[in-house]
Amino acid sequence: MTKSSLHLNKLLYSNLTYLFLSFDGKAAKNGHNDVVKLLLAHGANFAIINKQGSNALRAAKHHDFKETRVILTKHVSK
Prior knowledge:
Layout: H1 3-8, H2 18-23, H3 33-41, H4 56-62, H5 66-76
Helix pairs in contact: 3-5, 4-5
């Protein structure tokens, strides 16, 4: 891991990583999946589990963000 990817994976004050924040709420529905792709390309870890026991893929499934789920699933299979 690079120094910058460690920063990307830090749990923030909101108990979320930048990857969580990139599609939380309406972001994914408003076409911000390019941000999800960018974060993953720069080392964001989709598997980090927050204090509520969820990770980015689980959250995308829970909120029915289909395109985000597909992006994360493809990233997992690399």
